[in-house]
Amino acid sequence: MDPPTYFIVISIAAFIYVFYKATKCSVLDDIPGPASKSFLLGNLGELLLNQAGLWYFQTDFSWQETYGDVVKFKALCGERKELTRMISGKGIFWVDDNAHKRQQKVMLPGFRTPETKNFLPLFLSCAASLSRHWSDHLISLEKDQLHVFNISEWASRATLDALGQAAFDYNFGATGNHDNELGQVYPNMIFNAFGSPSKTTLVMLELLQFLPTSLVEFLNSNNLSRRVAVLLKVANVANAIAKELISKKSEVLLEGKGKKDLMSLLVKANAGENPRGQLSEDKILLPMRALIFAGHETTGNTLAWLLYELAQSPELQGKLCAEIRESELSIEDLEGMSLLGATVRETLRFYPAVLHLFRTAKEDDVLPLSAPIIMTNGEILTEIKMPKGSRVALSIPAYNRLIIFGEDAHMFNPYCWLEPEHVKKGRASLGPFANICLGWRFAIIELQAFTVELLSNFQFSAAPKTERIRRESAIFMVPTIEGEVENGAQLPLRVAFAPKGDE
Ligand code: HEM
Predict the structure, then answer these.
(1) Would you say the CB of residue 436 lies under 6 angstroms from ligand 1?
(2) What's the complex ipTM?
(3) Domains parsed from the chain with CATH numbers
(4) Has 416 been labeled as part of a binding site?
């Protein structure tokens, strides 16, 4: 078949499939939910073209309030695998079943509590490097002149450097404007690839996911669209650096001089596996891109949102500064800073970096419900029968505002984590710390270290554009400015030197 005919056949097959999907009846049809807004996109536009989470919990109209905690919505929602491959390679986020377990097992030793705690000095040093950069800039200004930094950009750069050093013993040079290629292509990568998509882009992305993987891989590898080009560029640079790093790590390990960064631990753990459980040489590259993806934009965006909240609340900022002043910077002290811990936890709840988890039932299954739901036909269900192939999108922003987090779950209130009752009701083990992220300890210590270092040196307050901040949905929750969304991730805050001592 020549390429044009092949393309026409594929397009017709895709259309028939889409038509079949859009009109097919399902046992899930009686679950309450909004009417479909578009034949091709269903309700996907409402989910992905608005501010992150808005459709679940905005006060004047919300899916959560109108339909409850389980909502049926229409979308093609094909397999997300190709999307995942393009972002993070065929690593832990792409593989299933046994391959997933193998990758988890090999990565786990790097994420245990003692190993993660060892990263504290390194995080503090990366945060100090950001502080120096900002200080130099502030010193160069006229006296009393306040400076507005794009916190989003700097948080992204600094957390990329922290990840590079902790995970790979590698300097991306993102904070210091060095000439590292990866340090240049990674910041803002997610927004450039996924931020503010048009309806056409969404339809194309959805349709791509119904084509055979090999064809999609071929199309993507040759596609010159701006968004795909961003991802390809990052993938190529990351793969080249990963290869260079792995060969260095293996040599060092063979000489018995392995370091304590995640990648060295991973190469070591893999070498210690029995040959059947070992990842092959090319597969050991896979975690690197997955780790950069999972461990940089997540903490970068969370840090930006945390500073945003502090800028809105001088009282909270002052109390945190006081707590930090009274403590040393050891790991024990960090653990003892209860308001700091509560603020980080509340930021993770209120601004969840990851917006959705997508899951597909591999076989007929039953989804138990924590509370009964009333179907449109009046039936009351305490569990949902999920036929094989059913797709579920878990909204983390919606989950994190459930009543289980308290009556004031719609407000940012770190103090609630200090109330013994709040934690006793089991909330501590929910949401932010749910058991799905390998890097959660890493993330908490990193966020604490950055907050301590930055608040020890600077004061944050709102800038003129701060009130126009939007929560952009770009796989992650990314801050942008109303009216300037096309300029990418932005969180402008005024930064000044912190008053010294009792000033
Ligand atoms: C604010 C920070 C973070 C948040 C909100 C977060 C959130 C998440 C979520 C929701 C998942 C589940 C994804 C899915 O199943 O589709 C996940 C998985 C994962 N995260 Fe994180 N993460 C954060 C930081 C980190 C860091 C710093 C690292 C590594 C340095 C990391 C490494 C991973 C890995 C390896 C997985 C895959 C685990 C598996 O599939 O078994 N994360 N994370």
Answers:
(1) yes
(2) 0.97
(3) 78-352+400-497 (1.10.630.10)
(4) no
